[in-house]
């Protein structure tokens, strides 16, 4: 046998071995790919097979006694770095037909794109002094503001008109129902606005309001209807859920549970949610429901808010009881803390501002774009289950609408601060009558 023949025989004898090795490699590749796909399917918000995140199922009923409700006396025994835990939730399946047609219809009439028009014939829709439920924090004229132009601005969409406000029609929409606002002090301002818009057509003996508490209820007996406000500034359970005593050194939340609040809001027929401002106040302490001994983690505001929005969305998506409710989410309310953003070279804020910004598309630092995108991503997965009331851009123009110094301040201000009005101006909340009335006109438009 020649050398060439021996080489050919040896080459043929290696083929079965090489084929076997190739088959093993292919099989392992398939198994690895299937495992990767399984990981991605289980953790849909993370497409990386290298992920080391732990996914938490939110809103589980407590199974042990160590889970205590958070209150203003709650403290973290220890605080560590954020562990990377994520909320496991699955959005609703895309809706066909009706939902798509509804969205297309809304796009043809974008009521959130427009301009402010001065209208001293039709606005304000009520007088500040005629509303017995007005808050001293929002009653700007009562507390010394003499220029009343802020009360006379009407929102005019570019290509259509808002439905004209009608208190009787609104009460008919609410007949036999519970309308509940859930959120922070800005949502409370919208709640007060709604009461002031509606209360005048209800006889005094047919209306009542409960004392200020976490859940405050205005009732109209002749319509068997209520307009309610639930103080839940962070939406999930937190140590800031006392409506009065919530100015704390550290914010502690249970990022995986809305159960304390949802037990109250699930009885309402129409829900209006908001949350934003409190997430802009620095890091947040996370106390997961499965953590004993008050072992907390610390996370930046945006990251914590994303966890909370997902926990909130999970509750709405996973319970059939929400199918019969109308649910709205009000987007972030802007602040006007730096006048240089609309007037170059100035160093003030909203103090002494008397007219809206007339630069269409103006966007200041008081509205955080990454937060807006995150909220949009969460709400998109909820489909038509939640309708969005986008108040951000239209409110951005209203640098003139804040109380600034014309409100009741609960603390005594020192003389040096009183001598410098911008130093204590409230450029966060809104005077009433004013901007929140338009938010409620938008709500009326969509109900």
Summarize this, please?
This protein has about 450 residues and is an alpha/beta fold.
Structural Rg: 28 Å
Number of helices: 10
The major sheet is characterized as: 7 strands, mixed
Q: Reading side by side through the largest sheet, how are the strands ordered? A: 7-8-9-6-11-14-15
Terminal-residue CA separation: 94 Å
Q: Structural class of the secondary elements?
A: alpha/beta
Task: Supply database-style keywords.
about 450 residues; alpha/beta; seven-stranded mixed sheet; four-stranded mixed sheet; 10 helices; 15 strands
How would you describe the overall organization of this protein?
With 447 residues, this protein is of the alpha/beta class. It has ten helices and 15 strands. The protein has helices spanning 3-42, 98-108, 167-174, 185-198, 259-265, 301-318, 369-381, 392-396, 415-418, 435-446, and strands spanning 55-56, 78-81, 86-87, 114-118, 153-157, 178-183, 207-209, 215-220, 225-231, 252-253, 270-273, 284-286, 295-299, 326-330, 387-389. The strands form four sheets. The protein has a seven-stranded mixed beta sheet with strand order 7-8-9-6-11-14-15, with helices on both faces. It has a four-stranded mixed beta sheet with strand order 2-13-12-10. The longest helix has 40 residues, at 3-42. It is globular, with a radius of gyration of 28 Å. Residues 107-161 form the Trichome birefringence-like N-terminal domain. Keywords: Membrane, Signal-anchor, Transmembrane, Transmembrane helix. It is a single-pass membrane protein. Residues 163-445 form the Trichome birefringence-like C-terminal domain. It is found in: Membrane.
